[in-house]
Amino acid sequence: MKFYSTNNKDLRVSFKEAVFNSLPADKGLYMPENIPALDPSFIRNIEQYSLQEIGFTVAQALIGDAIPATALKAIVEDAINFEAPVKLLDAGTGVLELFHGPSYAFKDFGARFMSRVMGYFSEEGDALLDVLVATSGDTGGAVALGFLGVEGTRVTILYPKGKVSSIQEEQLTTNGQNIRALEIDGTFDDCQALVKRAFNDAELKSELRLTSANSINIARLIPQTFYYFWAYAQLKAQGTKEVVFSVPSGNFGNIGAGLLAYKLGLPVKHFVAGTNVNDTVPRFMETGNYQAKPSVQTLANAMDVGDPSNWVRIQELFNQDLDALRTLIATYSYTDEETVKGMQELYDKYKYVACPHTAIAYLAARQFQKDQPGEYASVFLSTAHPCKFPDAIAPEIFKEVVLPSAEKDRVGKEKQATPLAVEYDAFKAYLLKNK
Fold first, then answer.
1. For residues 308 and 280, what is the distance between their CA atoms, to the nearest angstrom?
2. Percentage of residues of the chain with pLDDT beyond 70
3. What domains does the chain contain, in order, with CATH numbers?
C-alpha cells in the first residue's frame, strides 16, 4: 500500500516513509492510495472476533505488506492491551468508553500503536528520532506514556500555558527520561503551527530526524478505526442492527477514523460531530464556506481547535463532495453552559460521570435522536476519564470519581517544563540547542 498527499495525488510514498515524515513536503496529509472493502464475511461475523483480531485485520487492509503479518499482529496485541467497552445507558443509548488505556484517553490507541510501528521500522545505528507533538490536552499525555522509555526516541510536547487541566499537565511534565515539555504562551493552534512549520524547515530537518505524533500522522489515524469496528461487534452481539456514532470533535481525527472505518465497510447509519464553540466545521457544513478562526478556550479543552487539520482528510474521503458529507454527518456545537448541563443530565438521568468532551458527544447524540428519530443504537464516544477534569465537573458529581491508581502515584511529582513564547525562531533555537 502506498500513501499519497492530499495536495498531490502523484506524490506517493511507502507506509514507512509516511509514518516517519508525518507531513508531505507540499504540506498536505498522507492518505492510503486506495481503501479496500473488507471481506463481507468478516463484517457479518465480526462479533466472533476480539478487539485485537479486529485491529489486526483492519490494519493489514490499510498498510498491506508494509509490515509482515506476524509482526503486525504482535504490534497490535502489545499496543492495544486494554478494553473499550460499550455500556448501555438505556435501550437505545450507549457510551463507548475509550479511556481505559494508560493516559485515560482515546489517544492511547494511536500513540501506542504508532510508537511500536516506529520501533519496528527503526534500525540499529539510526539517528535519534525526534517526535514533535502539539497538544490541547490529551494527545500529549498519550504520546508521553506511549513513547516513555522507548529507545532511540525523544519526545517534545508543546502545550498551551494555562489551557490544560492539572492532571493533563502532570501527564505531560512529570515523566522525565526521553520526554520533555514546552509550555507555550498561546493556544493549541499556535502549538500546532509551530510543529507544522518545523516539518517544513529544511535546516532543522537536516539537523534532526523529525517526525510527528499528532493525528496528522497516518499511524495515529489507523488504530482509531479499530474501536468503531469493536463497538459495532459488541452491539451486533446484542442484536443491534443499526448504529449512529456521536463523536466529540476538535481536530477531527477521531471522527475521521470513524469515516475511514465506514469506507472500509463498517455498517454505520450516521455520524454526528459535536463541537464546543470552536465551530469551524459546523459553520462550514451549514454555509459551505470554510473559515478558520482563532481557537477559544473552553471546558472541553482537547477540542479547542479553530482550524482542524484532519478536516482535509475527511473531505478527501468524500472527494470534496459537500452534499455527500451532509448526507452522512450531522454537526452541532455547544457552549460551556450547555456542556455543564449535559454533564449534569448524564449524572441525574443515568448516574454516569462524564468529562466535558463526552457530555458534548452526548448532547449531540440526543439532539440527533430528536431530529432524526428511529430504531437504531445511538452511541456517543467517551474520550477521556473524568478524573482529568476536576475544575470542569461540578464538585457534587466529581466526588464520585475514582482516581486511577497510576494517577495517584503521579500526584505531587515535580513539574518539568520549559516556557516559550509563540515565536518560531525561539522554538527552533531550543530544538537545535538541545539536540
1. 8
2. 98
3. 82-106+220-398 (3.40.50.1100)
